[in-house]
């Protein structure tokens, strides 16, 4: 399986620590930065987790629990939110919604639309129209 890195060189990946890094069971600050860098850059959650777990030097189950203690959400949820934040930026541009879906690693436009609608309570097309108003 190959991993695809989303190219968004103009904007840094958000590396905010949401919880107390000294919380019991949390990732160390350096590990959290590594994790957020991989999860913010990789299109595939599987590839992002493999890379982050490997670089942090912990098991996948420990990583997942510690990430949730550190950020308040699972790695997959955090990864999805980063993709959706990028979607907001891309929807402000001229790209077709289907192209944005593919760029962000969704299977198809319907998959992207469903994920976007669940998070923002409106479709990507509606969001784009409201930007133009």
From TrEMBL:
Keywords on record: DNA-binding, Transcription, Transcription regulation
Coiled-coil ranges (or none): none
TM region(s), chain numbering: none
Matching SUPFAM superfamilies: Homeodomain-like (SSF46689)
Pfam families found in the cross-reference section: HTH_18
Presence of keyword Transferase: no
InterPro entries: AraC_XylS_family_regulators (IPR050204), Homeodomain-like_sf (IPR009057), HTH_AraC (IPR018060), HTH_AraC-typ_CS (IPR018062), Tscrpt_reg_AraC-type_HTH (IPR020449)
Claim: Transcription is one of the keywords in the record: yes
Ranges of residues in domain HTH araC/xylS-type: 29-130
Name recorded for this polypeptide: Helix-turn-helix transcriptional regulator
UniProt organism field: Luteibacter jiangsuensis
Lineage: Bacteria, Pseudomonadati, Pseudomonadota, Gammaproteobacteria, Lysobacterales
